[in-house]
Structures are given as C-alpha cells and as structure tokens.
TrEMBL record:
Belongs to the glucosamine/galactosamine-6-phosphate isomerase family. 6-phosphogluconolactonase subfamily. PANTHER family: 6-PHOSPHOGLUCONOLACTONASE, 6-PHOSPHOGLUCONOLACTONASE-RELATED. Residues 18-270 form the Glucosamine/galactosamine-6-phosphate isomerase domain. This is Probable 6-phosphogluconolactonase. Pathway: Carbohydrate degradation; pentose phosphate pathway. It comes from Rehmannia glutinosa. Gene3D superfamilies: 3.40.50.1360. It comes from the Eukaryota. The lineage of its organism: Eukaryota, Viridiplantae, Streptophyta, Embryophyta, Tracheophyta. Its EC number is 3.1.1.31.
C-alpha cells in the first residue's frame, strides 16, 4: 500500500509551568500550522479528540487568533466518538461545540452525504457547516464506523483530503490528541484488540472499559499518517503514564501502552504542564 519508506518521527517535548501556559502555547502552535498549511494547499484539516483537550484549546478562539485565523479553510474531524446522540452529554461533538467551535449551535442534516454538520449561529469561529464532519448518530457502532470511513473515502475521491504516499492511509494536517491514565489514545485501549487494527481506517468498539461502551475510532495507521500530532497532557494524574511514555517507566517485557505507538509523518509534539511532567 505504501509507496515510500517512512522517515523517523521528529519528536519534541515542550514543558510549561501551568495548564494556562500550555493553552497559550497550543493556540500559537495551531494558528501557525493553520497559516502554513492554508498557504501551502488552501485548507487545514484538524482532527479533534475529547476530554480536557477541548478546554485547552480555549485560547484559540480568543484574540488575536479569533480574528487572524482563516477559519473558512478549516476542515474538522474527530479521532474518536461515542456512539450516542450528538446532543448527548457524552458526545465529543457536543463537547467541542460547547467549548471550542461555538457557544451556541444547532444541528443540520446534509442528506446527500448522510452526515451531521455544525451550523454556528454566533460565528464565534466561522467554520463552514459543510467543513465539520461528525458521525451519523442514527447508526449502530459498526454502521457509524463504516459510514465515517466512507465519508473519508469520498473526501479523498473529491481531492478534499489527500492520501499519504508513505502509508496509503488518509493524511490529516494536524491531530490534537489527549491520553488517559491507562495510556489509551482515541478509543484505542490497552486491553482491546482494536489497537492492533492495520487495515481499517475507522473501527468500532462496543465494550469500552471507559463509559460509554459503544464508540468509533480512527486506527493507528490513520493517526500515524498525520503530518503533525500534538499530544496535549496536563495534570498530575497523568504523570506516571507520561513517564512510561517518554521516560523509563515501562516494565520490561510488558505490552507497550497505546500512547507509545503514536507517531507522525512530520512532527510529534508533546505539550506538558509541570504536573504531567513531574516524573520525567
């Protein structure tokens, strides 16, 4: 499938005193990449995750970035999603809608592509509704995963998304990821076989060890085909896992944590506050 030999991922670890400092740095990092990719190819594809990541993006929708970022060129995706209604409190879509994309919103159905899109009523960040790709929450976990993968294939066929010439999987410009205390990323958990999926772009899980059980998730081949990945880790509860991922905390002979399998075709940047980095 691949047509080139992958280069070794460039990794940098950025440590900050506070979560506020991480939020400030993450906003500049994201805005700079937005300008770079829009200048190079006319769009900027961003993959969001859930959890505390959305709150840490808060500075991006404040001045000066709220006014200077060309939001009209952004394409928004989710690295994983809970298979619940999009207005459910467990929905990563709703989390992003409330905390990053817009403070007020309503949902709009695009019948042609059978997808839910975000309509931003207050233009806090004026991303076109057709550029926001949420799951079809009317389908089963398997159906939602198939549907999301089909959308990606459609976007590739229409030259909206590119294919990596290294991996043969979809190539996103930036993935913004978090990590759980157990080392999971997206919905790829240490004890679930989905972390080893190598063929599918999007897979599904019905027994997530973290509620709610039904989810869909990008697979590692898709995650690791991204041009840039930011691992955004804050809080003392993640210090031990951060040590295992970046230090010498992994027990010899044990199965590597999913977070240690993250790489990027360009650069992998770890954004850590002092608490998360305390055991490095």
């Amino acid at each position: 499938m691949a047509s080139a030999t992958p280069a070794k991922t460039q990794t940098k670890v950025l440590k900050f005193d506070t979560e506020e400092d991480v939020a400030v740095a993450l906003a500049k990092y994201t805005a700079d990449l937005s300008e770079k990719y829009i200048n190079e190819k006319g769009s900027f594809s961003v993959v969001l995750s859930g959890g505390t990541l959305i709150d840490t993006l808060r500075k991006l929708v404040e001045s000066p970035y709220k006014e200077s970022v060309d939001w009209s060129k952004w394409l928004i995706f989710w690295v994983d999603e809970r298979v619940v209604p999009l207005d459910h409190e467990d929905s990563n879509y709703l989390l992003a809608s409330r905390g990053f994309l817009s403070k007020s919103r309503f949902l709009l159905r695009n019948k042609r592509h059978c997808q839910w899109l975000l309509h931003i009523t207050n233009e806090q960040v004026p991303i076109p509704p057709s550029n926001v790709y949420a799951i079809n929450d009317k389908k089963s976990p398997e159906g939602a995963a198939d549907d999301y993968e089909d959308h990606l294939k459609d976007l590739i066929s229409r030259k909206i998304l590119p294919i990596s010439n290294i991996s043969g999987f979809p190539k996103f410009d930036l993935m913004l990821l978090g990590m759980g205390p157990d080392g999971h990323v997206a919905s790829l958990f240490p004890s679930r076989h989905h972390r080893y999926e190598k063929e599918r772009w999007v897979t599904f899980i019905t027994d997530s060890p973290k509620p709610p059980p039904p989810r869909i998730t990008f697979t590692f081949p898709v995650i690791n085909s991204a041009s840039e990945i930011a691992m955004v880790i804050t809080g003392a509860d993640l210090a031990e896992t951060t040590k295992m991922a970046l230090g010498n905390g992994q027990i010899p002979g044990s199965t590597p944590l999913p977070c240690t399998e993250v790489s990027a075709e360009g650069e992998l940047a770890w954004f850590l506050d002092k608490d998360a980095a305390s055991k490095l």
